[in-house]
Every structure is written in structure tokens, then in C-alpha cells.
Amino acid sequence: ALLLWGQYxxxxxxxxxxxxxxxxxxVGNLTKGxxxxxxxxxxxxxxxxGCTGTxxxxxxxxxxxxxxxxxxxxxxxxxxxxxxxxxxxxxxxxAKTFFWSIIKxxxxxxxxxxxxxxxxxxxxxxxxxNGATITVDGRTYKTDTYQSLFYKYSTDSxxxxxxxxxxxxxxxxxxxxxxxxxxxxxxxxxxA
Length: 192
Known about the structure:
The chain contains five helices and nine strands. The strands form three sheets. The chain has a four-stranded antiparallel beta sheet with strand order 6-5-8-9, with no helix packed on it. The protein is α+β, with helices and mostly antiparallel strands. Helix 1 (19-34) crosses helix 5 (88-105). It is globular.
């Protein structure tokens, strides 16, 4: 996760301020929501090692007349994140982390998220499993397959995988989770 806020060549945040504060919140939510490493919230001049004139470096930050930031989220030029970004619910997860960030920025209380999400992987190879079935709270989700999604992006049926699952509106407390996939033992556990 990487957030770049508008920065002048002297290191100060672009006026009007607010992009840095928002970036500081968003990067934490993206990192936790996506469960990925973070590069942090960084001024764009610092990140790129210099400014365009007096700054900011990025035109999205330089040309706006409001507080600004640019999110590289978690999928920019990263093959694993790119295959996740092909999934509709992955984009919903990103949107929710931004929504929660705005709520926090405004000082309001975040509603109960009720989300259960993750990636199903082979424990030996670490490779994500396409076509796994996950059940939580009496609902079922099947991870993406070549036939359900990846055919839109590749002619190689073995190239893309993400193992991603996503449930919304899951009640609080412990919930049983069941994971099954062809060629694997069924897993039964608990999520909270």
C-alpha cells in the first residue's frame, strides 16, 4: 500500500492541507484490509526524489485546488495484486477501506464492518487456489477460476489465480468457516 500526498519542494504539504492527514489514515486501512505490506504515506516529492518546479511532483496533486493524494493501493505493477484487482469484491474491499478512512477523517464512528475475507492457498506451494469453496454464516463463495473470470484477461488457463473470498454482513462473534477444493482435504475452522 502506498499513498502519495501533494508536497512542495521545501518538504511542506501542498495547500490546502488535508491530503497528508487523509493519506495517513487510508494507508493504515488499506494495509489492514488488504493484509499487505505498506510503503506508507509519503510526500510525492520525497518519494520521487525531487519535485516538478516548486512541486508537487504528481500532476494529480499539483493541479488540484483541494487537498489531494494518490493511492497506489496494493496492485500497482504487482502481478499478485493485479489478479486480485480483477475481482469485483476485491474492489469493494478497497472502496470500503476508503469509506472508513473518510469516516475516521471526519471524526465519526465507523459502522460494524462484518467482513470475512482472505486468500485460499496451497500450504506446500503457497500458490493461490482457484475454484475453492468457502462457507461462512450459511453462505458460500467460490474463488475465481479461469472459466468464471480469468478468461477475460488471458488465453492461458493456468496463468492467473488469486484464491480470494469475500463475505459482507457477517454477524459479530465466532463463525465457523469451511474451505474445500478438489484434490484437497476439507478445512473447518473458526473466524471472529
